From TrEMBL:
Keyword Nuclease listed: no
Residues of the EngA-type G domain: 3-167, 205-378
Subunit structure as annotated in this protein's UniProt entry: Associates with the 50S ribosomal subunit.
Protein name: GTPase Der
Amino acid sequence: MLPVVALVGRPNVGKSTLFNRLTRTRDALVADYPGLTRDRQYGQAEVEGQPFIVIDTGGIVGNEEGIDALMAEQSLMAIEEADAVLFLVDARAGLTSADQSIADYLRKQSKKVFLVANKIDGIDADSAVAEFYHLGLGDTVHQIAAAHNRGVTQLLNLALSPHIDGMVLSDDESDEHDDEFDTVVDLEEGEEFDDSEETAQDDKIKLAIIGKPNVGKSTLTNRILGEERVVVFDMPGTTRDSVYIPMERGDREYTLIDTAGIRRRKNVTDAVEKFSVIKTLQAIEDANVVLLIIDARDGITDQDLSLLGYVLESGRSLVLVVNKWDGLDTAVKDRVKSELDRRLGFIDFARLHFISALHGTGVGHLFESVEEAFDSATRRTSTAMLTKIMDMAVFDHQPPMVNGRRIKLKYAHAGGYNPPIIVIHGNQVNSLPQSYKRYLMNYFRKALKIMGTPIKVEFRSTN
Ligand code: GDP
Ligand code: GDP
């Protein structure tokens, strides 16, 4: 499970600046889809090879009303679900009463809290941060300048280290762990463990069922489980954990990642599962294939688009599912279809299914697309084959001239799977226009019959 880091602090201390810095590499992934903007609140991030989820909680101050109160509630939930909390204060503005009330709240939580003074660039940081020790959140005020990327990597290494407790750090311990190398070794040990787990279940399809509340996730899960042979086991979990259900279908083994938590719904007192973006993000990261469920009765909502954005950011395989397709008249169906075209037309790689989880219509066919996507995402293709396809693409449509010379593509090889990455080597490839890159990507997709997964084509210049 990916660790979760929550950014907390009053408005204007630099939370979104830090958030953007941590999640910047994801911009490029989403940039491939002009119909989408990256969500600026929840993001997948990475520091020195360690992936994690970061949440910008917005400004909780403690006296919110109306819509702000609703957002504050989500923020409090995010803090509850986080492994580490970075409490940002503004080293330039000094200590405020809003900082005080947030500190009061955090002190009551049993969370790893790191007190972080931001904007230390160009000021006498040590004297500026002195007053923040009065917040009573431990002996360390971590100093950063998010806008200039100062202290950020070091801070995140600390926050993500399982052996460091944030606010209970004593001076001695902090000295010991200032040694960055120590922390890095810890992380690598953790990663190795993850890897071995991955290879052990390599041929199992991990299928995540995601969607906003009430789209029919649990109805669909129940429908699937009702029709297939299921080996159910109970797993202990916290509120942010999905339920993992092993199952077989035909000759294939699956693990359903059930974000609606149907196992727990048997408990009457806990009848409605709280929707959690973190839970959804974790499920996407952990899956091979994602079923994104959309409610035909609501059309495409902003929340659907934001969940879709997370899937695209992750590079996971995707099958789009419009549920509740029963009992709709033709006019409504037509409206939904044209809305799908308009708002999701830019997703050219995912199959689209119209189903009724309630009646079971179309549910079986989902698995054809799931298996196709999984096979597309994991199939191995040789260098010879990829180079041949590249040559065919060039033969059909030459790359343009740059500075009087034609761009030359030399050979192609696989750079990774799930999603498939194709690496093309050649001369001046950095000058290839976007339109030609897109042409190549689509050519590979067609030639290899890849469906259900995004493809990445990367270029390496040989001169
Ligand atoms: P948020 O409301 O907590 O999300 O704060 P923002 O990220 O929007 O930042 C508020 C302001 O502080 C912006 O004008 C940023 O450019 C500025 N800011 C953020 N980080 C730094 C920093 O490290 N140094 C300086 N000097 N300004 C910063
Ligand atoms: P979840 O929150 O995403 O797990 O959604 P549920 O599975 O709990 O479903 C929410 C509501 O939608 C319930 O009242 C379901 O009976 C209803 N529902 C789910 N699937 C369908 C469907 O295919 N057709 C119709 N008409 N209703 C459905």
